């Protein structure tokens, strides 16, 4: 019996075997490409997609940067009015703002995934009209590099590109480790205190619950604002009491035209001002969670190390 079946198999042309196995491979690939993917977002919501997301709307700029860094920028189908980076997203249609996106415009884009960053309550409520229309939505909260890496890995799962996500995480970690080694080699007994100005006047500072706090830590400094909140409102009397050794202030949407701290007459008593330890930085690099936060660590570490050497 075995000999009979073997002779029949041997009589089949080689070309037919090739077509058969090619068909099997094609079916296998197609099946894996359409496999369901699932994560739990940072609000504890389980999200399952029937297949990896191919049409994505990001309601916060971080996701654009991350997906483009993963070579997945072609999956973005819209942007918010405030987002113009990376440059490749500028040609995409605008669907409103981070807090007030236009549900009708988003639905018209036929997304299979909408991404949002947690923050104020309006950020979560912006997703409600989308969820009621059956659009899958995920929300993330990032206040540290570890939380960012977790988010990136989950985006890798949702897009069916876990390897690309891990590659991005590894490249960021490599640069962070290089900064850490420099800080260890140049370490002294005291850790330099840093004050990070988000906005002035009506002074707002970065607290312990912000990505800025982790940037300061990785750069070898310590955030002198000891408050668990992301953004902390401070009186100038409290700033004088904190008397930071280094003063960092950002320029961007939150602080569009800041006056230099050393040009504010009532700041002249701060050690940072008297010793000219002042640094102006780009808000989108420091305050927006994303791949460029590693650049922020490198910039701040260079500044702090140079101050030690003076």
Main sheet: strands, sense, barrel: 6 strands, mixed
Give the radius of gyration. Answer: 25 Å
Which regions are unreliable across 5 or more consecutive residues at pLDDT < 50?
none
- The DSSP helix count reads 13
CATH class assignment of the largest domain: Alpha Beta
Strand-residue proportion = 15-25%
**Distance between the terminal alpha carbons, to the nearest Å?**
90 Å
Q: Tell me the series of helices and strands, N- to C-terminal.
A: HHEEEHEHEHHEHHEEHEEHEHEHH
CATH topology of the largest domain: Rossmann fold
Give the overall pLDDT as a whole number.
Answer: 90
Shape assignment: globular
> Can you name the CATH architecture of the largest domain?
3-Layer(aba) Sandwich
Percentage of helical residues? 40-55%
What is the fourth-level CATH superfamily of the largest domain? Nitrogenase molybdenum iron protein domain
């Amino acid at each position: 019996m075995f000999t009979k079946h073997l002779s029949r198999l041997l009589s089949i042309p080689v070309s037919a075997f090739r077509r058969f196995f090619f068909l099997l491979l094609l079916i296998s690939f197609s099946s894996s490409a359409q496999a369901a993917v699932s994560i739990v977002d940072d609000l504890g919501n389980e999200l399952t997609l029937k297949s990896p997301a191919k049409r994505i709307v990001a309601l916060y700029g971080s996701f654009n940067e991350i997906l483009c860094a993963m070579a997945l920028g072609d999956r973005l189908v819209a942007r918010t009015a405030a987002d113009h980076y990376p440059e490749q997203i500028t040609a995409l249609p605008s669907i409103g703002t981070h807090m007030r996106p236009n549900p009708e415009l988003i639905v018209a884009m036929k997304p299979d995934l909408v991404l949002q960053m947690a923050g104020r309550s309006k950020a979560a409520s912006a997703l409600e009209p989308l969820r009621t229309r059956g659009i899958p939505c995920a929300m993330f909260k990032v206040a540290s590099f570890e939380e960012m890496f977790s988010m990136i890995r989950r985006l890798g799962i949702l897009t069916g590109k876990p390897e690309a996500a891990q590659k991005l995480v590894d490249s960021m970690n490599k640069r962070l480790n290089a900064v850490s080694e420099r800080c260890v080699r140049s370490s002294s007994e005291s850790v330099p205190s840093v004050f990070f100005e988000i906005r002035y006047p009506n002074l707002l500072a970065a607290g312990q619950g912000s990505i800025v706090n982790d940037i300061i830590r990785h750069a070898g400094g310590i955030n002198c604002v000891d408050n668990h909140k992301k953004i902390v409102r401070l009186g100038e009397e409290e700033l004088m009491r904190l008397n930071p050794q280094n003063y960092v202030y950002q320029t961007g949407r939150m602080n569009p035209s800041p006056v230099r701290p050393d040009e504010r007459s009532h700041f002249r008593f701060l050690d940072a001002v008297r010793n000219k330890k002042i640094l102006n930085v780009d808000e989108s690099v420091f305050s927006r969670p994303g791949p460029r936060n590693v650049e922020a660590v490198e910039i701040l570490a260079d500044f702090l190390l140079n101050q030690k050497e003076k």
